[in-house]
Structure formats: structure tokens, C-alpha cells
Amino acid sequence: MNRNIRITLLTPLLVPSLVFGYVSLMANSSNAATPSATCSAPKGDASTAPAISGQGWTPSTVLRIQVHGQNLGFPQSDANGNFSFTPASLIAGTITAQAVDQVADPVGPLVTCTTAGQNQNEQQQAKDQYSEGYLKGFNDIKGDCQKEPPTGSAGLDPNWKKGYSAGSAAATAQYC
After folding, report:
1. Cβ(49)–Cβ(64) under 8 Å?
2. What is the CATH architecture of 33-112?
3. Rounded distance, CA 53 to CA 76, Å?
4. Where are the chain's structural domains?
5. Residues facing 94 on adjacent strands
6. Do residues 45 and 70 make contact, with C-beta atoms less than 8 angstroms apart?
7. Nearest by Cα to 82 from 33, 28, 27
8. Would you write out the chain's pLDDT as a tens digit for each of its 176 residues?
9. Distances (CA, A) of 114 to 31, 120, 161, 171, 174
10. How far is CA 67 from CA 20, 140, 173, in A?
11. Are 81 and 59 in contact (CB under 8 A)?
12. How many CB atoms sit inside 10 A of residue 60's CB?
């Protein structure tokens, strides 16, 4: 059979499946969070994890709850678009919620919850320490790709250490 004839005969079979597959994917990728979607996590005490809750989500939507990019869980909003979720362990940091599909790919905007475990002043101090460490790490590696992290770092702020690591990694990627 001639090659051109084979392609001509198979084309009507392939095109509809591609088109309908694309249409079904497009139908499932709707924005699962409305602009009014919210998330909050009140400051917990030293013995219990705070309940993370939200409202204004599309009903029956699976949400990914994260702190610092690590998954805490995947609750589902109820018929009214509300959810409540209590993580298995204590957490501190910026918590986010995002609607996801069946394979945990984002299908809606990222919503930042209130920060658990820290007040506003502590949050600002943590951000400042991270920024200071980032700048130091970036400049150290930028100046000398063989630079080692500071020794005796036990007394350094953990946020400063995280910032230093991130800054040195960024400089290494850019300059070394």
C-alpha cells in the first residue's frame, strides 16, 4: 500500500480522538477557586495543630494545603465551598491553599492563609533574617565559588541559614 494512501486513511481516525481529548481536558481545567476564596489558620498553642479553614471555594474541589512548599494534606471543599483541615503535626510558617485536579496539578490561584505560629513582628524578623542570609550567601559565592558556609553556625538564626543556602545556590547556578 502506498504511504500517502495509508496516511490519508488513518487521518480521519486520529483527528477526532485528538480533538475530543483536547476538549475534555479543557473542560476539566476550569478555575476551581473564585476570587473570593479565603484560607485562615489561627495561631495554635504549643500542644495542638491549628485547624486550617477556608470559604468561597468552588464546591467539592480538592485543595492542596502546603507550608513552605511541603504538602500538609488534600482536603475537599463541601457543597457550600467551605473546608476545614487539621494537619497531623504542629506547623509554623506561611500556609497556602490551592485547588488541584486528580493528579495534584494546580487548577486555580494560590491563596495565602494567615500565618500560623508567628505574630506579625516575628514574621517580619524571620523575613529580615532570611533576606540578610540570602544576600550574604549570594555575595560569598559570587566572589568565590569555593566559599564554604560559615563555621560554628549553631548560633545563627535558622531563617538566616535558609537564606544563606538559597542565596549561595542561586549564585552557584548563575556564576559557577
Report:
1. no
2. Sandwich (2.60)
3. 11
4. 1-30, 33-112, 120-175
5. none
6. no
7. 33
8. 555 554 444 444 444 433 333 322 233 334 444 447 787 776 655 456 778 888 999 999 999 998 888 888 999 999 999 999 988 876 677 788 999 998 888 888 888 886 555 556 666 777 888 889 889 989 988 888 887 777 765 667 788 888 888 888 888 888 88
9. 22, 10, 24, 31, 34
10. 38, 29, 25
11. yes
12. 11
Per-residue cell: 129: 533574617
The size of the chain, in residues, is 176
Helix (H), strand (E) counts: the chain? 3, 7
Q: Write down the residue that cell numbers 505560629 correspond to.
A: 117
Residue 158 grid coordinates = 535558622
Q: List residues bridging with 85 in a β-sheet.
A: 52
